[in-house]
Model the fold of this input.
Amino acid sequence: MIIDSGLRVSLRHRNFFIVLILVGATFCLLPYWLDDYRLHVVIVSLFYVMMASSWNLLAGYTGQVSFAHAAFAGIGAYTSGILAVKAGMNPWLGVMMGTILAGFLGVCLGFLCIKMGGIYLSLTTLAFSEILHIIIINEYEVTRGTMGLQVPALMVEYSKAAYLYIMLAATVLTLIIIYTVIHSNLGLNFRAVQNDESAAASLGVHVVQIRVLAFTVSCALAGFAGGLYGHYLLLITPEIPSLDQQFLVLAMAVIGGMGSFLGPIIGSFVLEILSEYIRAYGEYHVLVFGLVALAMARFSPNGLTGLMDRLGSRRSSI
Amino acid sequence: MFSLAIMNGLAIGVIYALAALGVSLVVGIMNVINFAHGEFYVLAGYFSFLFADALGWNPYLSMLVAVGLVFLFGIFIEYIFIRPTYGNDMYSLILTFILVIVLQNAYLLIFGPYPHKPPNWVTGATSIFNLFYYGNQRLAAAVAGAMVITAVFALIKKTWFGRIIRAASQDREMAELNGVNTAQLNMLSFGLGCALAGTAGVILTPVFPVTPSAGVPVALTAFVVVVLGGMGSMWGCVVGGLLLGLVENLGAAFISTGYKHIFGFIILILVLLVRPAGLFGRKEI
Done:
């Protein structure tokens, strides 16, 4: 019996990897079909997939809301960018440094406030992201302030197709990490901590450590995504660690469906592609997404994936 | 320079305390942090500008109407969005954060990016101990802020409604058993918290004109004050507000003006490191 269920679980894991490989292979063919502008939209969507999925790892699986996810992407981007511009460091090495720094700051912030409960994490991360914004704008000699910091590309010859492959590889890596974490013992602890803190603690789960760990992993993944994104845009501005950006990531996870693996991925693509269409009429996409996210969070807390599940189960019950 | 910074710190500290009282009230009773606190502040500022400047009403009347409207808007928000999230702190955090972005963008769409301010109540300046001249409008704002804080203290400490609020924030279930309608209480206190943000807004907008994103630093300062004073503590708000006002203005005067808001963050980190419950906080909240 136990062997049988183990077999089923490993089969499910195998299915995940098969789907991932098939979808990834389809994306590899995109440069043959799409022009540069559409490729750009896909690349940006992939960046948001990384951001929203790693934010979801924290919010959807451990029930903690961080408002500094965009700030940590900014830390990744600026670390890598400044190292490349001022010290001439290889951008790839810079992205790794950015990831490590984001993870390190995540540990520090996490230990500082998580023991006090969820509200403190949200407050502190919100303050942190504002402070980062102030520092970036004030230290314009290093960061070039609102002008933006020009950074070198990841490869010698700039091409959208090459960046698509890089971002795709990074996204697949991020998704595999998140999938592995969720389906490991650790993921079980995450869920336990989210569902009932005291019950989890009574069963020997170290609640604070688990939460800090989830926060750290999520911050490091954001730093990784931000570092790559900065070297794709070639211009790092305070827009990357802004509250608007943070909101977009949050809205993608909320509208797609928090606490599900697929939700943030769907949300990222839907919102990024929609925002390109809305942009034709002016800068209303943030307001529109805000209203939709409000309605979603209020009436369908499980997002689009939850809606689809509900429709699917209704049809099957008929 | 030094005495001017002290004066500025005390004057602005009163308003910080006022804004923080609203946050503290809502946290104490509902265990909900209203991230859109600053946006209610901005909304009241815009209303008072609209009525006094565009419609030409009496400035005092337009302030009253502005605060009243913000109170009603707060009640509406509680009824529609916050009420279904009780027991799930995460969703109230997410909802109020989304509300921040929605309101900011709506203000930008309606009022444009330029600063707006209602007319001053008073003009001129007064000499303070023959040391320096201080703007009368700022003095009036500080006095008005202190008066509103006193009124709130009287409401909470002396009236029947205040007794209900204190009972509910100490032990919710016990209050319910004694016949308190906590759903209605939540609605009223959320509206009251928003109205306090709005009061700070109408008092401060003649000095600092409002822009669509002016609410964020105000809200962050209020949050720092609440953590510094201890979540749910009213005296903590007053002491914390004055303290933060002083630190920020002394820091701005002697260290760097660009980093004015960073001192609040340093205080936040120090508090979390040394005394996480805050100055007047209860151990567990």
